[in-house]
Design goal:
Elements (H helix, E strand, L loop, with lengths): L10 H12 L23 E5 L4 H7 L5 E6 L7 H6 L4 E3 L2 H7 L5 E4 L7 H9 L3 E4 L7 H14 L3 E3 L7 H11 L6 E8 L23 H5 L25 H10 L1 H6 L7 E6 L11 E7 L2 E4 L2 E3 L2 E7 L20 E7 L3 E4 L7 E4 L2 E3 L19 H12 L7 H19 L7 E4 L4 E2 L7 E7 L12 H4 E7 H9 L10
GO molecular function: nucleotide binding
């Protein structure tokens, strides 16, 4: 039976047939964990990996000393090096079969392509299993909201895989901001040199035979079916709208994390974008997205006024403040800058190498607040991953739990909505409570470019007018679709 395309095997039916047996499972302190029927030693967490060939392999390696009991990947050739690392783990291709049939799983680590993040995460949480989910948390705004609500309802331990959120520098920069050292911050800038993969591409023209080790139907999942091509898998999926979230989704959860955390941003009230050519299939080569955030509640030493945050990718950079010293670094690879009324702070991802400048000189700010750090892992694993593991075993709340990372990810992927809607030539007004752009009329048209398909083994030369065409969509309908996808092929949440 093809479980992916059989609507009778939807998530709701799957949950209904297994929830009675598995609902209510939780991880309790190690002194009592033997009651779950674990194999000795009893204080180990039983972990299943879903999507393990790439980043998932690193996440599992950063959870040392645990029982890796199950490994699931749609491409067993790509994942073979992980199968060899954990030879005792059961092997699966379909996460639904794994969750239904394997009863000894306490937690799942998910590192699939973006478009299939929400499905296994929601199913696992409904079964009482803790979830470590790679960034970006989801492919759409609605999926982020949904996972946040499921995590709250089920009470499981969760963590988004923006690993740097556990770094000390995140909290150092936050202490500088909250101490009022920069004054009122009304302007923030964040940039990356990504993508380093191909973007701005049309669909490949040539059909390629699906490798024997790959289940292409399972890779496609809830997206529209298309023929296999190595331009999509195993890695370049990130640049295609149906599978990935482009440079913003890839690096936004890293580079926007400290601005979001330190400035307590919450949801924007408006956003807009400009970019290189937008086409129907893949994210543009470069883009600039602007978010407007309302004033937030003031802190004891720091006001939080209305703020505009601007994102740049594809090598675009913000202008340097004129009063910066000539040797003040703004790493073109990626970083962020807070422009305050008293001083300016510049840093790289997660606040690394942060520096503060005032009146043309670097200064050492005096902080007035202290924020607790994430503890180091005594077992030598990844700080972020092992904080998740230890919270699963002993209680506690991971740093990037869905309570934090769900709303944060809504803002990140919302930027792609702005990129895709930019032909409307307007600032988009955002109603966060209802997840709706409020200023698009029912009859407005969205104009997008469709590029001619290309063949990877035949080079053709066409004049510009023949290589692209104009596509018109109903703007309101497409906006709704990109906020909340209509899943295909029998998948549902």
């Amino acid at each position: 039976m093809n479980l992916k395309t059989n609507s009778a095997y939807s998530r709701r039916n799957f949950i209904g047939t297994t929830a009675t047996a598995l609902a209510g499972i939780s991880i309790i302190p190690s002194r009592a964990v033997a009651g779950l029927g674990h194999t000795p030693p009893s204080d180990k967490l039983n972990i299943a990996g879903i999507g393990i060939g790439g980043k998932g392999a690193t996440n599992l390696r950063n959870m040392p000393g645990q029982n890796i009991v199950a490994l699931c990947d749609v491409d067993w050739d790509y994942a073979n090096h992980v199968f060899e690392t954990y030879p005792k783990a059961k092997k699966w291709k379909d996460f639904r079969k794994m969750l239904e049939k394997q009863k000894d799983i306490d937690a799942v680590m998910i590192a699939t392509p973006d478009h299939t993040h929400a499905l296994p995460a929601a199913a696992a949480m409904e079964l009482g299993k803790h979830v470590y989910l790679q960034k970006p948390l989801t492919h759409s705004v609605w999926e982020s909201r949904y996972l946040t609500e499921v995590a709250k309802r089920t009470g499981v331990v969760t963590q988004m895989g923006n690993e740097g959120h556990s770094n000390d520098e995140v909290y150092e920069v936050t202490e500088v901001v909250h101490s009022g050292c920069l004054g009122d911050i009304k302007e923030a800038h964040v940039w990356t040199n990504r993508p380093i993969w191909r973007q701005g591409m049309p669909k490949p023209l040539k059909e390629v035979k699906v490798p024997k080790t790959l289940d292409w139907d399972l890779f496609i999942g809830p997206a529209a079916m298309r023929p296999y091509n190595p331009e999509y898998h195993p890695w370049i999926w990130r640049g295609w709208w149906d599978f990935g979230t482009g440079a913003l989704g890839d690096m936004g959860c890293h580079l926007l994390d400290v601005p979001n955390y330190a400035l307590q941003l919450g949801a924007p009230i408006a956003f807009q974008a400009s970019s290189s050519l937008v086409n129907t299939e893949s994210a543009p080569v470069s883009a600039k997205v602007s978010y407007l955030f309302p004033a937030r509640k003031n802190l004891p030493y720091c006001a939080l006024p209305e703020l505009e945050l601007t994102w740049y990718d594809g090598g675009l950079m913000p202008s340097r403040p004129y009063d910066l010293p000539v040797d003040a670094p703004m790493n073109p690879g990626g970083g962020f800058m807070f422009v305050g009324s008293k001083a300016t702070l510049i840093a790289e991802a997660y606040g690394s190498k942060w520096k503060v400048y005032k009146n043309g000189q670097e200064i050492v700010p005096e902080t007035k607040v202290n924020i607790d750090r994430i503890p180091d892992d005594p077992q030598g694993g990844g700080r972020h991953e092992m904080h998740f593991v230890n919270c699963c075993k002993n209680g506690g709340k991971p740093a990037s739990r869905f309570e934090y990372s769900g709303p944060f990810n809504e803002m990140v992927v919302m930027g792609n909505l702005a990129v895709r809607m930019q032909s409307l030539q307007k600032t988009l007004l955002w109603d966060s409570e209802n997840m709706k752009v409020t200023n698009i009329s029912p009859d407005e048209k969205l104009v997008t470019t469709k590029l001619s398909q290309f063949s990877s083994d035949v080079v053709t030369y066409k004049v510009e007018s023949e290589s692209r065409s104009r596509v018109e969509w109903n703007a309101q309908e497409m906006c709704k679709e990109w906020i909340k996808h209509n899943y295909q092929n029998g998948w549902s949440l």
